[in-house]
Amino acid sequence: MLPPLFSRRQSAHTHPTGRFALELRHLRVQFNGRPALEDLSLQIEPGLRVAVVGPNGAGKSTLFNVLAGALAPTAGEARVHGHLPAQYLCLAYVPQSSLIDWHFPVSVEDVVMMGRAGRLGLLRWPADLDRRLVHESLKRVGISQLAHRPINELSGGQKQRMFIARALAQQADLLLLDEPLAGLDIPSQEQILQILDTLHDQGITVLVATHDLDLAAEHFDRILLLNQKLIAYGTHTEVLTAQNLAQAYGGHMQAVETKEGKLLIGDMGGHHGHDVEGRHG
Amino acid sequence: MATMWKAAMASWLLEPLGFEFMQRGLWVAVVVGIVCALVGCYIVLRGMAFLGDALAHAILPGLAVGYLASAGERVSLFWWALGTAVLTSLGIGALTRGGRLKQDTAIGIVFAGMFALGIALISTIRSYAVDLSHFLFGNILGVTTSDVWMTTGVSLAVFFVILAFYKEFLVLSFDPLLATTLRLPARWLEILLSILTAVAIVVSLQTVGVALVAAMLVTPAATASLLTRNLRAMMLLSSLIAAGSGIIGLYISFYFNVASGAAIVLTCTAVFAVVWFWWQFRNSARRA
Prior knowledge:
The structure holds two protein chains of two kinds. By secondary structure, chain A is α/β, with parallel strands linked by helices. Chain A contains nine helices and twelve strands.
């Protein structure tokens, strides 16, 4: 079914139906015959903050692409608020910063306004409503003063906040963030996490792909541990067990009980390369 | 002294305008320059310069066949060229789908094959070789009144399509995955943008020819991209540079007897070179 292209979209697909924000049924994705995701079944309730963790190549970005509707699963099904992903409008994603051309000649405000393009419909120009939403979105992530800056003058944290503002302007109720904290300093990470908390207060479901198990355990309601297959989904105490981690990271990651709590030791095999990934109680 | 110099300058500028073929040529050079500059902004931002060049070369067999079929009649040649360009861009798209071939590989194969086919066809039909060489290198001074009308009409159409789909093309160029999550018809927009590229190339055949069209698409837009960080300003500057280069190039062609297409493209290149060195200088001054 085609959405109404030339008018403002207010179709049924902007209203959530169904109990789960996200439901995967035996989802499988293959590239050239090689499996990227295998038999993924999962239900996520609305309003949760979910950290998606796993080693490099675990299929985190693939999963996000399926949820965004950019990639059709080989088998099985994904449902976003009861709808097929490619038909659901209230979903936004924050791309990996490295995939964006930061010399593109647009301002912060222009990028956030792009979030309105889907609702506007073809052949329509932004109205007061759209400008107000853009303005409010920028204010909510605290970068109103940067509205007219070219995007290549932003810091790493400001770039992420700009994309979160764009997601807010999209009026999304499901937000996918691909490695939003990678390469940020601690204060910037804290700011992003605070903004995610305010989204949580508004009932927006947030999925964050991250390498940082420590942050995942500390700041998220649920952890989804992935390595092509679903290893575990639940709270951090349920998910971050020695057995699960060994299964996901193939013995490169261990959970050791110490007096201070659980200590995660491992090498991520990828660009991180820390020995001690983090610690939590 | 000053008045004499002024008078000489004025007559130098006005003399070419006394010729009707120069009036038509100047108008077409300006209009075509602007269309290429606008479409070129998207091409430069999306890193598709190679596709532009390939499409320009790939229409040669279409021109050759069209020439045979229509006995050189301009309007039908236009449709032959446009059809070939659109088919070529769809063909490249089909080859890259499924991910087995990378896009620049597919472009390379199709473009070289089509261009070879064009040369083969032309070489078998010797008597047409001279006329067809106008399409290779442009022949702006042979622009007829009906060419002027057609070029203007088609260019206006391209202009309005870009205006109508401004925000969609912007999203598609900046962040294709956003176009998908906004549920924009991304595939159709891609095709529309390649059709616009094809149209821009076909209307420029008479000014600069197949061999040099890519410069009209890329050089003014790239020059403008060094001067501004705002897409609308980039489009405006790019158009001004292209239109100005068209006029200056034709004057050079008139007075120094240089091929018109080459003169226009060289003017664009000179403007780019000046801006590039200014840009380098400014950046190193900032760093210091």
